TrEMBL record:
GO terms for molecular function: hydrolase activity. It comes from the Bacteria. InterPro entries: HAD-like_hydrolase_sf (IPR050155), HAD-like_sf (IPR036412), HAD-SF_hydro_IA (IPR006439), HAD_sf (IPR023214), PGP-like_dom2 (IPR023198). Keywords: Hydrolase. Pfam families: Hydrolase. The keyword Hydrolase applies. The keyword Transmembrane does not apply. Gene3D superfamilies: HAD superfamily/HAD-like, Putative phosphatase, domain 2. This is HAD family hydrolase. It comes from Streptomyces halstedii.
Length: 221
């Protein structure tokens, strides 16, 4: 029976969370909303529609939702040619693949954005597939993206580990019954990640790679 390593992308493998914050901030500003960057940062990791609803509330003008998410996509696309992976991201994926793990990404990115992120990571040779929020009825923190990633990997929850950087990642993994590993590279505090269900916390992908043999990956499966 296979084992799986499931990964979020933004803030986990790629240094893109704060690009998303500034692009969302500008998208909200263009629509006439003043939303604090700290609030946007805490919402990064939700799918676009869920992020808008989370920040503007139920009483918002829902006709603006599509315009705001489209503006964010347009603004973020200007960065596609210079997106950056964290040092060690590709090395970590290859090390896990060499240990027999099937690598699956679980992200809300799709299309050109996903292609740009995968190019930045540079490990397509070991990535078995991608589970996007486009493929499920509900994005993180619902468990469906993680469950879909398990389906792609052909692996039960008991033989997988999920790695992410947001409280939404941790909650989705916990709800799917998958042990959750958190990275601090997305800018979320250790306390918040542990409260959301992280079983282990590392500084970034390089730190996890250096301690791989004592990590939940060595204990699962």
């Amino acid at each position: 029976m296979p084992q799986a390593a499931l990964f979020d992308v933004d803030g986990t493998l790629t240094d893109t969370n704060y690009l998303h914050v500034t692009c969302w901030w500008e998208a909200f500003r263009q629509a006439g909303h003043r939303v604090a960057m700290c609030d946007i940062h805490r919402a990064v990791g939700l799918s676009g529609g869920d992020l808008v609803a989370h920040l503007l509330g139920e009483e918002r003008d829902r006709e603006q939702d599509g315009l705001i998410t489209a503006a964010h996509k347009t603004l973020y696309a200007t960065h596609f040619d210079r997106l950056s992976a964290f040092d060690g991201a590709g090395d970590l994926l290859r090390a896990l693949a060499a240990r027999g793990r099937r690598i699956v990404l679980a992200t809300s990115a799709s299309g050109r954005e996903l292609a740009a992120l995968r190019a930045a990571v540079g490990a397509d040779d070991v990535i078995a597939g991608t589970a996007s929020s486009d493929d499920v009825s509900a994005g993180k923190p619902a468990p469906e993206p993680v469950e879909h990633a398990l389906e792609i990997a052909g692996c039960p929850a008991s033989r997988a580990v999920f790695v992410g950087d947001s409280v939404w990642d941790m909650r989705a993994a916990v709800r799917a019954g998958v042990p959750a590993v958190a990275l601090l590279s997305g800018g979320v505090s250790r306390g918040d990640l542990e409260e959301a269900g992280a079983t282990a916390v590392y500084r970034d992908v390089s730190d996890l790679l250096a301690r791989l043999d004592s990590s939940p990956f060595a204990r699962s499966g």
